[in-house]
Write a structure and sequence with these properties.
Arc Repressor Mutant, subunit A; 8 helices; 8 strands; eight-stranded antiparallel beta sheet; alpha+beta
C-alpha cells in the first residue's frame, strides 16, 4: 500500500533555480482533465471528501511529488473516523482561511509533466468523478504544447478551457515589470490570503526574493505616479 506523509502547511520552501529567462513569454492555461490516476482524489475520495483543491506541487524526489491540498473543514468535520492529522482541521472557524496539508505521493502523469516542463500549478480542483480542472502557468508556448502532448499520449481526455498569453502593453511599466506583475496576479500573489508569497514566486521564476521585491516596489511606484499624475 502506498505510504502517505501528512504535514501541516508550515512547510519550508527550498528555493528553486530553474525558470529564468525562459519566462519571457509565459502563458496561463486552464484545462479540464479526466484523470483516473490522481492519487490525491483517490485517497480523499475513499474517505468521502469530494471538494478538494491542490494549490501547489513540488518534486520531492524522482519518484515522489508533494501536493499542498486545501480542504473544507466542514467536510472533514463530518468524517466518521478521520486520520489524526485531519482532526486538527476541525478546529478552524468559519471565515478563516481554509487549512492546507502537504501530502507526499508517487504523483501522476499530469503533475509530473507540469513539473518537468518548468511550469507551476496555480490550482487543481476536483469537479466530478475523476475530472479535475487544472490552472497553471507555463514559461512558453512550447512548454504548453509539450504538456498537452504528454497528457494525450498518456490517454487522458483533455478539454482546453482557457489559454491566455502575456502581452506587453508598452505603457507605464517596463516589459519586465509587466511580466512579473502578470505572473504574480495570475499566480495569486495579490489574493487574500496569498496563494503564493514572495519567496515562493521568486523561487519559481529563478530570481532572488530581494530582486522580486524590488521589481514589484518600483513597478508599484510607477503605477501610483501614473494614477496620481493629474494632482498638483
Amino acid at each position: 500500500m502506498e505510504e502517505w506523509s501528512y504535514t501541516l502547511s508550515a512547510y519550508t520552501f527550498l528555493k528553486g533555480t530553474r525558470m529564468k529567462e525562459a519566462w519571457s513569454r509565459p502563458y496561463h492555461v486552464v484545462l479540464e482533465v479526466e484523470n483516473h490516476e490522481c492519487t490525491i482524489v483517490k485517497r480523499f475520495g475513499a474517505l468521502g471528501l469530494k471538494h478538494l483543491k491542490v494549490i501547489d506541487i513540488r518534486s520531492s524526489s524522482p519518484q515522489s511529488v508533494k501536493h499542498l491540498v486545501e480542504l473544507d473543514p466542514a467536510e472533514v468535520k463530518h468524517l466518521s473516523n478521520p486520520p489524526a492529522e485531519l482532526r486538527q482541521i476541525t478546529g478552524k472557524t468559519e471565515g478563516e482561511a481554509k487549512p492546507s496539508i502537504w501530502l507526499d505521493s508517487s504523483g501522476c502523469n499530469v503533475c509530473k509533466t507540469i513539473l518537468e516542463c518548468d511550469a507551476f500549478l496555480v490550482s487543481g480542483k476536483s469537479l466530478q468523478d475523476a475530472t479535475i480542472m487544472y490552472s497553471f502557468m507555463v514559461p512558453s508556448f512550447e512548454a504548453y504544447q509539450k504538456i498537452l502532448a504528454a497528457m494525450k499520449q498518456a490517454g487522458l481526455k483533455v478539454n482546453i478551457l482557457k489559454m491566455g498569453k502575456f502581452e506587453p502593453k508598452a505603457g507605464v511599466l517596463t516589459e519586465k515589470q509587466e511580466r512579473i506583475f502578470w505572473l504574480a496576479l495570475k499566480g495569486g500573489f495579490f489574493d487574500y490570503p496569498r496563494k503564493i508569497d514572495t519567496e515562493e514566486l521568486a523561487g519559481k521564476l529563478g530570481i532572488s526574493p530581494s530582486t522580486l521585491s524590488e521589481i514589484v516596489r518600483r513597478g508599484t511606484r510607477r503605477l501610483l505616479e501614473s494614477y496620481f499624475k493629474s494632482e498638483t
